[in-house]
């Protein structure tokens, strides 16, 4: 089964893609290579170097040159400050004792309505919703952050599957 990669055709102008499409650095955002077609999707990114970053879902209309994402209706992301944003509104926030750190794996579940975050395999129980349409995994980096598509360090939660490719 092919692995998820970031998509060089849908990325911001100053994004650097390394490791055969599996690592993002530089500045700006990038969509993943496949949309979330199944009802319950799961994907992971490893925080290689934490500075300014975001992970979530977005529709293709998202402006990948305007970070942070989550400022309009085209994306729903968790940012490095622990908050989930959609349409410039804080929809949820991870618990105070769960600041994502370098080396953590951020897992995302999305069921076509609600996005939830897992931090190193632990459910943060802070869901957020609001985005509509065909969504793709999205990431952005800035200020020397580096993120990598994870090789699935954690088993998807019950009922969720890794992203299927058409």
Q: TL;DR?
A:
The protein has strands at residues 6-11, 15-18, 23-26, 28-32, 41-49, 52-58, 75-79, 83-86, 89-93, 105-110, 114-119, 122-123, 128-129, 136-142, 146-149, 161-162.
What does the average pLDDT come to?
Answer: 92
Biggest beta sheet summary:
9 strands, mixed
CATH architecture: Sandwich
**Which band does the percent of strand residues land in?**
over 45%
Q: Give the number of DSSP strands.
A: 16
Helix content: under 10%
Question: What does this protein look like?
Answer:
- By secondary structure, the chain is an all-beta fold.
- The chain has one domain (6-156): Jelly Rolls, CATH 2.60.120.
- It has no helices and 16 strands.
- Strands 2, 3, 5, 10, 11, 12, 13, 15 and 16 form a 9-stranded mixed sheet that branches. A 7-stranded antiparallel sheet has the order 1-4-14-6-7-8-9, with no helix packed on it.
- A hairpin with a 2-residue loop joins strand 11 and strand 12 (122-123).
